[in-house]
Amino acid sequence: MRSKVISLIIVFSFIVVGALAGFAQPVQADNIQVGIVFSEGGLGDLSFNDLAQAGLMRAVEELDIEYGAIEPDSVADFEPSLRRFAERGYDLVIAVGFLQEQEVIQLSQEYPHVKWAHVDVAHQDLENVEGLVFAEHEGSFLVGALAALVTENNNVGFVGGIDSPLINRFEGGFVQGVRYIDEDIEIQRSYADSFGDPARGREVALSMIDNGADVIYHAAGGTGAGVFEASEEEGQYAIGVDSNQNYLHPGYIIASMLKQVDVAVFEAVQAVLEGEFEGGINRMFGVEQGGVGITSLTDVEGEREFYEAGQITEEELEMIREMKEEVTAPHADRIEEIRQMIIDGEIEIEDWSVTGRQ
């Protein structure tokens, strides 16, 4: 196994270690040890892996913990990566993504003294596991409604990563959001079969644009970078996912569906540190809890941090501002109304991970 390993100690800087053969034992710490195994695509996806890392980095800085991290090269690396932390007696092991479900079920029973947190998977009857799950269909409903309000061609698209119940939940929310606004809008849907293939994402998006789509939403991890490239190339719009991705192609990404994986990871670590980790439960993060949502449609305060960090220029920040003023701000009140209706139970959204795709 040639997985990348990162071991970060309780200081605020971190040490990168190249391969499992050189796995570094953490120095002795007064607090807890947390191990995290990322999903396919690894760090740099600007999506749920990076968000999980951000949540853990916040725990390092605020809670004074130490941790180790592994980026598996393939799905075959999940089991030995998770086992590595369990064997070393880490207090908490975090698995990121649904692809690790069977491994967590197996290993949590082999190592009952270890606490486990699993991002994106709900577990039943595992007393030492907390599922960190999100109502992605609720957040996706919001961006689906926005896409329907913005499209001029009455034609929008959805690009998923791997066809699976979790990504079906994103798709279902988006489709229902579009149809809530206008049932006659055409919705193109396709799966790229990967969370780490931007070239494939670009290919799928270009095909949709050729067939008339002028707004495309992706739930495809790193594959979504190709969706953004295609949208800018063809002068069309895209919608990001998980984190604020609006800055990646300024003026062409009209919004991002936010999924607060970082908050969930931080809270799981904090619960272990404070002796409040329950296990045997699934924590749901929906619109009402602030676990999912949508980036601001009116201001650029969220994007300003990327400007201040030197990731975009002042001119690019202005491009985002102008896009919002012209494209999304006119629909901000309607989207806020819909968000509140979801919280109040006036809009019920089917979860396609349960009902199946439609």
Structure description:
The chain folds into two domains: 4-134 and 261-285, Response regulator (Rossmann fold, 3-Layer(aba) Sandwich), CATH 3.40.50; 136-259 and 296-355, Response regulator (Rossmann fold). 40% of the residues lie in helices and 20% in strands. It has twelve helices and 14 strands. The chain has helices at residues 48-63, 78-87, 101-110, 136-150, 165-181, 198-210, 224-234, 261-273, 301-308, 314-328, 332-343, 352-355; strands at 4-8, 15-17, 33-37, 66-71, 92-96, 115-119, 129-134, 155-160, 186-191, 215-219, 237-242, 253-259, 281-285, 292-294. The longest helix is centred in the middle third of the chain and has 17 residues, at 165-181.
Q: Which geometry do the CA atoms define?
A: globular
The portion of residues forming beta strands comes to 15-25%
Query: Architecture of the largest domain, according to CATH?
Result: 3-Layer(aba) Sandwich
Please outline the major beta sheet: 8 strands, mixed
Provide the helix percentage.
40-55%
SSE run:
EEEHEHEHEEHEHEHEHEEHEEHHHH
What would the CATH topology of the largest domain be?
Rossmann fold
Mean pLDDT: 91
Class of secondary structure makeup? alpha/beta
CATH class of the largest domain: Alpha Beta
* Lateral arrangement of strands in the main beta sheet: 2-1-4-3-5-6-7-13
